[in-house]
Write a structure and sequence with these properties.
Blueprint (H helix, E strand, L loop, with lengths): L1 E6 L18 E3 L16 E3 L3 H8 L4 E7 L2 E6 L7 H9 L14 H16 L5 H11 L1 H7 L9 H11 L4 E4 L5 H8 L4 E5 L2 H4 L8 E5 L12 E7 L7 H14 E12 L4 E5 L7 E5 L3 H10 L3 E11 L5 E10 L3
Parallel strand pairs: 6-7, 6-9, 7-8, 9-10
Antiparallel strand pairs: 1-2, 1-4, 3-5, 4-5, 10-14, 11-12, 13-14
Helix pairs in contact: 3-4
């Protein structure tokens, strides 16, 4: 572990750019074999007390300080270093030299998970199912995006997307777009797509297409005006919600659809609720709620939809496990 303190003591001259009096610490964990001396800039001097830091602050000087021992550190006054020097060093040690810029790569999933964990410890209150599910996707966004970048062999989803795209004229809302695989398919079929997901980290991995627009949002409260889309595609998303939130989401789909618009939804068949960690360890869990076809149909009708069709299919889920899926094609009355 290397401790780094750096920045401005209020000076508008020289290195550092914050121009405010401040004090903050960065802690960089190191893997076995990484050399902590990599964090020491040239021309730094070895110090054994914090007196040098105090003197720099008194003079309103800029400075850079690092240490990995209790009674020893390295101090450089008025450093002429590249922006975010310590982050650049750390990224290089991790063999990820391009990820030093945390503005471009903010790692929001890690930040949300850390914040939630601290809040949980402070208040001793568990996260809600939806909040923990979103954190699970945020924390494993890169690996999940990689696993779901293409359709499973034999999947019915590509043909279902193509059929829906052919049947409607207008914007498609991919509600729970994840890393954008289905939205891209719609775009390739010539549709303009709103790719909405509650996980900003997942959306950041979505492929870029001039017909897709990523939207950060919750299916239970869509950030969209009424009657703005021609179709809603919601594949393997509402299964994360208990029935009351399931109903709210269907009501939101009904609100944003144009009269005569259609929605296709799919959930896992069964009963009850399970919560499973994304990576098989103590990471945040995804919550799954199982539904029978009669329950799905009842919720759809209660939301104001006409149920055009329901059917069941065996499909691989994101963990490559064969699951029985219930699907429904719904229409908002004209």
């Amino acid at each position: 572990m290397v401790l780094v303190e750096h920045g401005s003591s209020g000076s508008r001259e020289g290195g550092g750019g914050s121009c405010v009096t401040h004090a903050h610490l960065h802690l960089f964990p190191l893997e076995h074999g990484m050399d902590p001396a990599s964090f020491v800039p040239p021309e730094s001097r070895r110090v054994t007390t914090s007196a040098g830091l105090a003197a720099a602050a008194a003079r309103h000087s800029n400075y850079y300080y690092c240490s990995w021992k209790q009674d020893e550190g390295y101090l450089l006054i008025d450093p002429k270093l590249p922006s975010q020097y310590a982050r650049r060093v750390w990224a290089g040690l991790l063999d990820e030299p391009d990820l030093w810029d945390w503005a471009a790569f903010p790692f929001l999933g890690n930040a949300r998970w850390t914040t939630a964990a601290l809040q949980k410890a402070r208040h001793a209150q568990p996260l809600g199912p939806m909040e923990e599910t979103v954190l699970a996707y945020d924390s494993a966004a890169e690996s999940y995006a990689r696993r779901t970048a293409s359709f499973a062999p034999g999947s019915a989803l590509p043909s279902e997307i193509d059929e829906l795209a052919d049947a409607v004229d207008g914007i498609v809302l991919d509600a729970g777009a994840g890393a954008g695989r289905d939205a891209l398919r719609f775009a390739q079929q010539g549709k303009h797509v709103l790719a909405l997901d509650a996980s900003g980290s997942l959306l950041s991995h979505a492929p870029v297409h001039d017909r897709t627009l990523p939207v950060l949002g919750d299916v239970r409260s869509l950030p969209l005006p009424a009657r703005c889309v021609a179709a809603v595609w919601c594949s393997a998303v509402l299964l994360h919600l208990p029935s009351e939130d399931f109903l709210r989401s269907l009501q939101e789909f009904h609100r944003v659809l144009r009269p005569g618009g259609v929605a296709q939804v799919s959930v896992k068949e069964g009963e009850g609720h399970v919560a499973l960690p994304m990576e098989g360890d103590g990471s945040p869990r995804r919550h799954f709620y199982f539904y029978r076809v009669d329950r799905l149909q009842s919720l759809a009708e209660k939301s104001g939809f006409e149920v055009l069709r329901t059917w069941s299919e065996d499909e691989l889920d994101s963990s490559s496990t064969v699951q029985r899926w219930i699907k429904a094609l719904l229409r908002k009355p004209a």
